[in-house]
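Methods — Computational structure assignment.
A single polypeptide chain was analysed. Its primary sequence is given first, followed by the predicted tertiary structure written as structure tokens.
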Amino acid sequence: MKTAKTLLLLIAATGYSQAASTLTFGSSSIFATNWANGAGTGGSLLAWGIVIDTDGDGFDSSSYFEGTNYATGLQTMKLSASTNSDDVLFVGSSGNLMTLTTNANDSGAIGLNRIGAVASVPYTNGISQGDSFAIIWFNKTALGGSAVAGDKFGVFTNAAFIMPSDGTASAPFTSVFTGADTLKTMNFSFQGEVIPEPSAALLGAVGALGLLRRRRA
């Protein structure tokens, strides 16, 4: 009969322990550039990361709710103040800010806003092999703070963006960015909820009650 210690050693040896992967989008010869800011132009050190679809039902990009934290680490994207999405955001611990190194292949002056890699993506919070992910970037030039309703952000998807197996130390996705990169604009804004003041809600209820009485009469 195996002891508990032996079982723990077997689990570790067969790969049940959760590891992390580094996803690479650029190399010394291939550059992932032209991530526009909220004004539709390059030239900003924008915060970026990846968002992972953990349930395989597509990204909820058009409905992400305010409050997203621009700090490093994992967080669940929200659909409302009280409802979580199945999409998980990860910003690398090394501080994922774009660089302004130009790439002549990407149309001169707008060959800016280069991204490299997002390091040490953990296989927790529902993230697993085979999940689709997207590059997400924010109209934010520093890490820290939270999004508010109306803040712009961009989501870039590609069929090749699939999470590798747990334990894959480094996974390259550079082929997606071979050649000239087109300018990629921010296509979404964070949503918010308008909560009426108690007095306004009460007036609305009184008005509805009066309309109901009138209809009965």
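Note: Strands lie at 20-24, 48-53, 73-78, 84-91, 117-122, 132-138, 152-156, 170-172, 188-189.
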